[in-house]
Amino acid sequence: MPGDREGLDDHDELEVDLPWLYAKTGLKWRSAGPGVLAAWVADMDFPTPPVVRRALTDLAGFGDLGYPEWLHDAVPVQEAFARHMTQRYGWSPDPAEVRDFSDIIQALQAVLHVCTQSGDAVAMHVPAYPPFLETLAAMNRRLVPIPVERTANGWEFDTERLARDVAATDARALILVNPQNPTGRSFTRSELDAIATVAAARDLVVIADEVHADLTYPPNVHTPFASISAGAAGRTVTLTSATKAFNLAGIRCAVAHVGSAAVRRSFAAMPPLIFGTASVPGVTATLAAWQDGDPWLSAVRRRLDDNRRLLEKALRPLGVGYLPPDATYLAWLDCRDLGLPGDPAAFFLDRAQIKLSPGPSFGGGGEGFARLNFATSGALLTQICDRMAAAVQQR
Ligand SMILES: Cc1ncc(COP(=O)(O)O)c(C=O)c1O
Prior knowledge:
Elements: H1 18-23, H2 27-30, E1 37-38, H3 50-61, H4 76-89, E2 98-101, H5 104-115, E3 121-126, H6 130-138, E4 142-147, E5 149-151, E6 154-156, H7 159-169, E7 173-177, H8 189-202, E8 205-209, H9 230-233, E9 236-240, E10 254-258, H10 261-268, H11 280-292, H12 294-315, E11 330-334, H13 344-352, E12 354-355, E13 357-358, E14 369-373, H14 378-393
The structure holds pyridoxal-5'-phosphate.
The site of pyridoxal-5'-phosphate has 13 residues, from helix 5.
């Protein structure tokens, strides 16, 4: 594809080397321990996209870290988000309904704070991203689990059960993580329509976390929940950022499109800076990624696509249940047939020096599973698989 190499600049940005990874100060590798290969927390091993590095270097080099012009006005990520959604998904949210946050968990907690009360029930697919389960517990919201289960067609959930459970618990909100973490499912239009029908019938606020959307593999298609109808848009808060697709989790800049007028009114009634504001480097990095990062992202998606297939070849013969994800760089590994002693993540850390995310921390049905992050070089992923295979063979 013409221009695809552009984002990769002067070095092959998608190669990684171990000394560099171990020298990094971030959570993923710092916590891995000597000799351990980190395949857990959702950071990619690839260096920061060159367009983002350049934007941040220019900002710091020019000494431009004072109060931004936009401090009391529209933050430029609002417009950039709206353009990004229009270009990628044909959805054109009103920038005036978009606000910045430092990260998605903060935004989720803020929305739950204004649209639900202590003791209220909130529906969410399980297994689920652990901090969201922890958020519900910490805020004393009752989880209404929507089990995502492996069927002959892949990962599916029962929409009739969803309707029943939401009614029986009088749920007030539904957290829709799409693409889903940890299964990597990209929900279809008909699944989203079914959720929208339940949400309308029970007057739910839908909190749509779509942070992994730009990592959807064709022919799967990401459909923003708020784009499916005016009714859905009017009850939805869409959360996203550039942090997953462009590997920027440390920059702390996220956006929320607040389609629900009730949630907008609640936010407007709060002290203006109670949720803080995105930082100048965070906004600079996000703008660079969304405006100029496409060639890099295309190259990353090709690498990740290769990796999700490489995993299939390596893990299937071992007896690990694995369905290549529709989106994300996360592999949800069913290790129940391996006959491992205890939690698979603990087994692979001890016997293979591979750090995975433990399945039970994702709740509903996570026992016997582990989550593997395959956003790394082909060489390192092969090494990870080889170590896991040797440990399984010697168990
Ligand atoms: C589905 C999902 N939402 C949110 C987050 C975290 O986002 P943030 O770091 O902006 O809170 C992650 C991180 O892996 C995630 O997978």
